[in-house]
Amino acid sequence: MATTNITIPARSASGPEGKHAPARMKFYVDTKRCIECGGCEVACKNENNVPPGIARIRVVTVNEGQPGETNVAVPCMHCSNAPCVSVCPVDALFHRADGIVHVNKDTCIGCGYCLYACPFGAPQFPKGSPFGKRGVMDKCTYCAGGPEEAFSATEQELYGSNRIAEGKLPMCASICSTKALVAGDAEEVANVVRARSAARGSAAGSWGWGTAYPNN
Amino acid sequence: MRGGFMKLTRVTESGGQYPNPALMDGLQTGVSRRGFITAAGMGVGLAAMGPSLVKEAKAATDTGGNPRKLNQIKTICGNCAVGCGFIAEVENDTWVSIEPWFEHPINQGSLCSKGSAAREHVISEKRLKSPMKLDGGKWKRISWDTAMSEITAKLQDIRKKHGPDALMILGSAHHNNETSYALRKFAAFWGSNNIDHQARICHSTTVAGIANTWGYGAMTNSMNDIRNSQCVFIIGENVCTSHPIAMQHILTAKEENKAQIIVADPRFTQTAAFANKFVQFRSGTDVALIYGLINVILENGWEDKSMINDRTYGFSDLKEELKRYDLETVSDITGVPVADIVHSARLMAENRPGTLIWAMGGTQHANGTSNTRSYAALQLVLGNMGKPGGGCNIFRGHDNVQGATDLGVLSNTLPGYYGLGVNTAYKHWSNVWGVEHNWIKSRFKDEKIMGKKGFTVARWYEGVLMDTKELGQDVNVHAAFYWGHSCNSQSQMDRIKTALDKVELLVDIDPFVTTTSILPDRKDGVYILPAATVYEQAGSVTNSNRDIQWRNQVVKPVWESRKDLDIILDLADRLGFGKEFKKSRNGAWKELPEDITREWNLGMRTIGMTGQTVERMKRQQEWGHAFDLKTKIAEGGPCDGEQWGLPWPCWTDKHPGSHVLYRTSIPVAEGGMGFRARWGPKAPDGRTLLAGKGSAPVDSSLNEGYAEMKNWKTDLTGKVFEDAIAKGLAPYGNGRARFHVWTMKDDPVPKHREPLHSPRPDLITEWVTYDDVKDHYRVPTLFKSLQKKDWVEKYPLILSSGRQVEFEGGGNSERNCWWLVELQPEMYAEIHPRLANNNRIKHGDLIWVESPEDTDTQPSRIKVKAKVTRRVSPDMVYLPFHWGGVMSGKDLSHKYPEGYVPYGIGESANTVTNYGYDRITQMQETKTGLCRIMKA
Predict the structure, then answer these.
(1) In this predicted model, what pLDDT tens digit does every residue of B840-858 receive, in sequence order?
(2) Looking at chain B from residue 264 to 293, which residues have their Cβ under 8 Å from any Cβ of chain A?
(3) Are residues B447 and B330 in the same domain?
(4) Most CB atoms closer than 10 Å: which of B409, B686, B795, B858?
(5) What range does the domain containing B178 cover?
(6) Is the pLDDT of residue A145 over 80?
(7) Helices H, strands E: what count in chain B?
């Protein structure tokens, strides 16, 4: 059986003024593929030196042990209209030009308001920091470090690695067991989703067939 | 290749262009971690992100901040047998990070939680930092020299008093091929067959079952080849948990081929969630289930008649046995509705080629060998053997368990499955070792014991405990080496503890302090020696599908740890046979470990581990990007035509390897072959064992069955292989696969037999287990006398054990990595809500799990948390088996040397798994036992 061959024509990256359109970085979790192996969680710790108790990404299982069991890896989704950015009282949270949401740990007061606002539970609060029990907020950086000089010791210590500045994708998506977790410019991520949908198709035995025809 | 989207393209280290890794299931991808910004102007993420970030990266570089300059080392993961590659990054001999090896044809950069935690095995604070000795009840730090001289003096003393068979060596499936080979050689030079390793309790029943069916006991196809399957039948294996990266290939088959995924398991596993069809059956009834499926296939005429007629033996005997398995009977035994059996059979028949995957759910039974033979029978009947997309994809456990098995770290054979024949196997290997056959003989007590199978991992401790009158040797075991092996993966933990209390000398060699060292209650006589992890030593490793990959050393052994091979060589020197040990027919060892590879290349004729030269393996490592994901064949470049990993048989250094065994649609020179003609041209009943006309591999000079070539197993010149290949012939002949194995006297054809601890006493009479055996790997093994009908009255629940994705085996390495322990912090028992409610147990409550008394007088019990989940059926209890450090409710933390208590400790499942061993291989029966539970 030949490999399914799907071609998605390249879209021109030039905007009306002839300038390059900016990237918009996104995660996508293919719930038809995530197997709850925990690779992303450990890879994140390894790459960013994340302390115990902090989960910048977490795999969540829905309906464990029952038909329909589904896993979702949940990092910070780097929302375009990010509630955390809106509510932060000290403007510690902000968007980079490429859409990555960063927290400035020098400004953050650790109030936890972002935790109320975030629909994904992304904000994390380390224990035992000078800010008391909750500490300043820590979260997924999209492996893009933070608002410090790229590759500097301060950046490494406060935020972890800066793979984006090195021209690499976040570690969690890079090592994902089944390529369930996809990262990149939203346009490319959309291409991945399109290609997979086309490969999965709609013939007998495809995804969802068992739901439509349970007794077949 | 998919796409035509230039925007997604990036440049790899070798100059080829590949798309973004995140996009690609079907594509090989490559990335040079650093250097591409300057070399090519853009890299993986940059191309994906658009130009704005390219500028930013450059700006960052311009402002002085530079990424660290790191040394990149390609290596192979040391956890499971999928054989994933990754790139370790090192600075000043310190392992600082991991990068995905996108061009690796098996995993394409992917890693699971264990693989992602590889670095922590090296940097963990819990690493054993120096040799330790138990002295007066206290752990004392000692030097290597003191440890080795005391241990060897004691060994010599024991040898003088009791002879060489008083030593038991428990080797490791984590040792690379060179170390495994050296350890097996060490046992032979010491003069005993009492050496074994984890394969005994992992896939020994697979090896015995399918090697007796078609010649070789290994996985017949490859992980990548599952991409060619139209149907994937998974029985007794939870791929998501045990071999996560293999799911990449299975899901690709599901998405691209619309392959039917059928999962048969007593539990609704994580893998079952991805199945099109889930078949929940009672643990230990595999043969009945498979025979039900075969019966449906035969009734409908769906069988592959030409495969059966031309390439198999004993089909009529199988058909005779099948008469006992009408669908109602099968349904009664297995608990599977008839409609589900029929539907599954139809899915398999209508979607060919299909592959069959199994692991320990199938092997760890008292009739495990019959289970594996029945799976093989199903694939033969469907005609799925010898085809891409078909085969028996038997997933093995540890990273080098296939290699350690091939290299004979087993009490029943020398390397290469040559057996133990004093004048055959030992003669061949003496020849390879470059020593006198008589000298080797002189190392043993006598020729009789030299040719006799030794103790196994599963029951070696009886050698310490039982009276010598009951044993198959005239001395007890007085010294035990646990070498990269944890005792909590073996059942009957309470018996093991008693033996560990009693044995004179216990040596535990491991990167971490294991359960073995801390279990016994004693004051002295225990040594723990720090071994390097797999990443601190180089060598080749064989993954589950026979791919042999070179694993580079990432860093030097940390602290005072030493490479396993160095420890073996030191022991050999101190025991006085170091010079002979390093001799070789190739000339004395100089370059290590490479010269050992060259030595096994010379001797491993039987399975064709002859063409995987060091140079070829290292070259493949550089050319991963040239290999196709589905065919595993390199296109162009210096590896042109080679298969990834040079999977055995790879007869000569020109042969490409054979990732699909028994495939006749390609010539032998390209990896084709028929079934092995291993049992002569004729069976004792007079029927032929040679394949029928027209069933030889293409381009064969004899297009029919033929016997094996003369001297093919012992000719060290390679001429026999070359001549055979030139004529298009497989050196081992072209025979028939056997449904009927006359040497297995109890089960010439596999039969369903109720487990020793059966929850269905009404079935025991008809489906009775075996008779007890007296001298079974030097110990008596009980079957019928322990299969009691009244077990179930007091112990009504089925007890089964299995894996957690974060851990492996005894878990002694992984429970010392906090990244993993954080994800899986404690031991538990899975029980169904119905069972929990009927016993007034809530999720998170502490409960006792108690199992019957077996051979001891006391029942065994463990205290664990209840995990209430619908994953299990209401009649069973499921336990993960990686835990140690707590026994029967007692915390053993105080027994560890100071600072070495693992991050995660818990009750060992194997304290309560029941007695029960395979009739052929002595595999432990941990998947089907009985127990009861109560609130603690």
Answers:
(1) 999 999 999 999 976 667 8
(2) 268, 270, 273-274, 276, 278
(3) no
(4) B409
(5) 147-199+412-604
(6) yes
(7) 32, 32
Task: Note whether B247 contacts A67, CB cutoff 8 Å.
Answer: no
Asked if B165 and B211 sit in the same domain, the reply is no
Number of domains in chain B: 5
Please give the Cα distance from B144 to A49 (Å, whole number). Answer: 34
Q: What is the average pLDDT score of chain B?
A: 92
Whichever domain contains A155, its CATH number is 3.30.70.20
Which residue in the block uniquely carries the two structure tokens 């017949």? B220
Residue B298 Cα distances to A29, B348, B382, B750, angstroms: 44, 13, 10, 17
Q: Do B210 and B191 fall into the same domain?
A: no
Strand partners, B260: B231
B62-69 own/partner pairs: CB under 8 Å, 24+ apart? B63/A149, B63/A150, B64/A149, B65/A149, B65/A150, B65/A151, B65/A152, B66/A151, B67/A151, B67/A162, B67/A165, B67/A166, B67/B34, B68/A151, B68/B96, B69/B34
CATH number at residue B279: 3.40.228.10
| Whether residues B784 and B706 fall in one domain | no
A window 133-152, beta carbon within 8 A of B: 149-152
Quick one: B305 and B208 in the same domain? yes
Domain containing A169 equals 25-198
How far apart, in whole angstroms, are the C-alpha atoms of residue B819 and residue A39?
11
Q: Considering the domain boundaries, does residue A209 fall inside one?
A: no
Q: Cα(B214)–Cα(B767) distance, rounded to whole angstroms?
A: 27
Biggest distance spanned by C-alpha atoms of chain A: 61
Does a structural domain hold residue A20? no
* Stretch B650-659: mean pLDDT: 97
Asked, for residue B128, whether it belongs to a domain, the answer is no
Question: Does B135 fall in a domain?
Answer: no
Instruction: Read off the pLDDT of residues B3-44 as tens digits, 9 standing for 90 and up.
Output: 222 222 233 333 333 333 333 443 333 332 222 222 222 223
> A7 at the B interface (CB within 8 A)?
yes
Asked if residue A215 has pLDDT above 80, the reply is no
| Residue A52 pLDDT level (bands cut at 50, 70, 90) | confident
Give the span between the Cα atoms of B428 and B603, in whole angstroms.
8
Q: Which residue of A has its CA nearest to B268?
A: A65
Q: What is the ipTM of this complex?
A: 0.90
Q: Are A67 and B278 inside 8 Å of each other by CB?
A: yes
Radius of gyration of chain B (CA): 27
What's the token pair of residue B48? Answer: 């994906």
Indicate the residue of B34, B49, B120 with minimum beta-carbon distance to A185: B49
The mean per-residue pLDDT over the stretch B177-199 comes to: 98
User: Is residue A5 situated within a structural domain?
Assistant: no
Verify that B388 and B461 share a domain, yes or no: no
Tell me the residues of chain A between 100 and 119 that have a Cβ less than 8 Å away from chain B: none
SS3 readout for B833-879: HHHHHHCCCCCCCEEEEEECCCCCCCCEEEEEEEEECCCCCCCEEEE
State the pLDDT at residue B44.
31
In this structure, what CATH number is given to the domain that contains residue B87?
Answer: 2.20.25.90
In this prediction, residue B891 carries a pLDDT of 97
Contact B50 A210 (CB under 8 A): no
Whether A70 is covered by a domain: the verdict is yes
B447 and B593 share one domain = yes
**B447 domain-assigned:** yes
Q: Are residues B306 and B443 in the same domain?
A: no
How far, in Å, CA of B821 to CA of B358, rounded?
A: 27
CATH of the domain at B798: 2.40.40.20
Percent of chain B with pLDDT over 90: 91
Q: Does B44 touch chain A (CB under 8 A)?
A: yes
